[in-house]
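Hi support team,

I've been running sequence recovery on a batch of backbones for a student project. Most finish fine, but this one hangs at about 90% for roughly twenty minutes before it completes. I'm not sure whether the input is malformed or the queue is just slow. I've pasted the structure tokens below so you can try to reproduce it. Let me know if you need the job ID as well.

Thanks,
M.K.
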């Protein structure tokens, strides 16, 4: 490992983090340990390996590296999926407690939260996360919320939250704050620097980056919160396979290159789309006219690689665009090296306030001119 006293840029951390100790003949990459159990006698001490559901050494390099990227006091906790990590974070809401959630957020997060209203009596309040005054009011509407959940940018509307203001407002009434940092990644936004309590990721997306694993992660600075999330993972069996985590670490090595390339391409595509006659509306925080531009410019180190576009002609036109592309892949999920797109309201679980004609573009690392040529011909054909 590099000298921990030397400050390193995140683009260096993704390459150097989690490497084995340097010694003659040592491997450059950490090994995959495929074992469900470990030699153990007597009463296991803290940190001792004895059973794979509790801990396994292949998790550690990825967890240490992600913890360093997020500037967390503790290594990350890797989970078997992004939803497993999200469920662990929502387990911090006590039975009967209240959680404030963005009205536009990952649809399964919203579905799980509403499921908790039935199973645990939890109350869910939905807000426009970009409206700081409305969120602040919701935090103490009748009784203080136990937890504020933030996505910024939101999925799929790309709204930007005022993280410092919302964290201060939430902590003032005793609410925990969780940020789903999947869209931004720690290269663009580090929520712990704003005092957030818990950060979650769908590692499936940008961190692993190759659309070949399903994983999640949760991080907490506070040792008690970290211990509670660890206990949830162990007791619920929300664990990840060693080989999948090793693949995620390999993908993480190129995160800085992938994010830089895809962000630059996304900004250029958003600019061109905003000028296209077949386009009604474009959402990307890089656009000066975007509602989140000023806030993103002040709080983030970039604008992300997701673009929202609404073609003229409604949902039928949006479906026509998705059906006409040849290079872009019509698929759900996001954050891979390949560019994908989908009309979000094709899912019945999507928020009804998301426009029916909204296409979410996940911009990959292909040549920008090739991506634009494919989009442009699809828009032209949809306009008929």
């Amino acid at each position: 490992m590099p000298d921990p006293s030397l400050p390193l840029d995140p683009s260096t951390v993704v390459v150097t983090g989690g490497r084995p100790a340097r010694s003659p003949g040592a491997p450059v990459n950490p090994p995959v340990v495929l074992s469900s159990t470990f030699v153990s006698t007597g009463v296991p001490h803290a940190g001792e390996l004895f059973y794979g559901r509790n801990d396994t050494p292949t998790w550690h390099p990825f967890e240490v590296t992600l913890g360093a990227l997020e500037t967390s006091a503790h290594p990350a906790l890797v989970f078997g999926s992004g939803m497993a990590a999200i469920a662990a974070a929502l387990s911090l809401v006590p039975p009967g407690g209240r959680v404030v959630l963005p009205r536009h957020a990952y649809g399964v997060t919203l579905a799980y939260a509403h499921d908790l209203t039935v199973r645990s009596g939890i109350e869910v309040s939905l807000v426009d996360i970009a409206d700081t005054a409305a969120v602040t009011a919701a935090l103490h509407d009748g009784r203080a919320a136990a937890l504020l959940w933030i996505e910024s940018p939101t999925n799929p509307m790309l709204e930007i939250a005022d993280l410092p203001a919302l964290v201060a407002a939430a902590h003032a009434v005793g609410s925990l704050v969780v940020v789903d940092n999947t869209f931004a990644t720690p290269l663009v936004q580090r929520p712990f620097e704003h005092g957030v309590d818990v950060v979650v990721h769908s590692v499936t997306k940008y961190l692993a980056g190759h659309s070949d694993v399903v994983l999640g992660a949760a991080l907490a600075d506070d040792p008690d919160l970290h211990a509670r999330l660890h206990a949830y993972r162990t007791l619920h069996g929300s664990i990840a396979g060693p080989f999948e985590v090793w693949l995620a670490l390999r993908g993480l090595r190129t995160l800085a290159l992938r994010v830089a390339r895809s962000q630059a391409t996304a900004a250029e595509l958003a600019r061109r789309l905003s000028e296209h006659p077949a386009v009604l509306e474009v959402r990307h925080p890089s656009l000066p006219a975007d509602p989140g531009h000023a806030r993103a410019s002040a709080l983030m180190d970039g604008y992300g690689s997701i673009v929202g576009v609404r073609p003229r002609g409604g949902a039928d036109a949006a479906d026509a665009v998705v059906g006409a592309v040849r290079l872009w892949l019509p698929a759900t999920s996001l954050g891979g090296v390949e560019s994908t797109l989908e009309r979000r309201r094709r899912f019945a679980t999507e928020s009804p306030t998301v426009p029916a004609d909204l296409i979410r573009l996940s911009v990959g690392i292909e040549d920008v001119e090739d991506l634009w040529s494919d989009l442009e011909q699809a828009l032209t054909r949809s306009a008929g």
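--
Follow-up from support: It reproduced on our side and the slowdown came from queue contention, not your input. Residues 255-274 form the longest helix (20 residues). No action needed from you.
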